[in-house]
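Technical note accompanying the year-one report. For the benefit of new consortium partners, we illustrate the data format agreed upon in the data management plan: each record pairs a sequence with a structure-token string. No post-processing was applied to the example shown here.
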Amino acid sequence: MAVKIRLLRMGKIRNPQYRIVVADSRTKRDGRAIEFVGVYQPKEDPSVIEVKSERVQYWLSVGAQPSEAVQRLLELTGDWQKFKGLPAPPPLKVAPERADRKAAYEAEAKAAAGVAETPAPAKKAAKAQAPAAEAEAPKAEEQTGAESGEQA
């Protein structure tokens, strides 16, 4: 059986997303696959390329032939060079981590309401100090009252 490593198209119209699969060369493009070995999302910025390197190396070692598109992807990830014994390519660009939308929303809501933002530990410390200050204040008043009573 001739085995190929190729792309299986998924996704919506104008938003292609591919799975990198190992399949019999006689099956349809989106037909039955032997194994899924990766994901390719070209519309993301930068493109998402995730490959199970260990499984790809196995399939290449037993004679699976990559399609031209998959071979280019394997060259970008460095799996093709590892298989051929060539030097590794430069690392892929990685998308920056997304900002926490909930935290950004809460910050904007506080800013719109005009509430001054203070860190949570400072609030706890202020609350802990306030009862202590209130407890000291009556004691001071009692002392001043006692002192004034003694003088009278």
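Partners are asked to follow this layout when depositing records. The domain at 1-82 is CATH 3.30.1320.10 (S16 Ribosomal Protein; Chain: A;).
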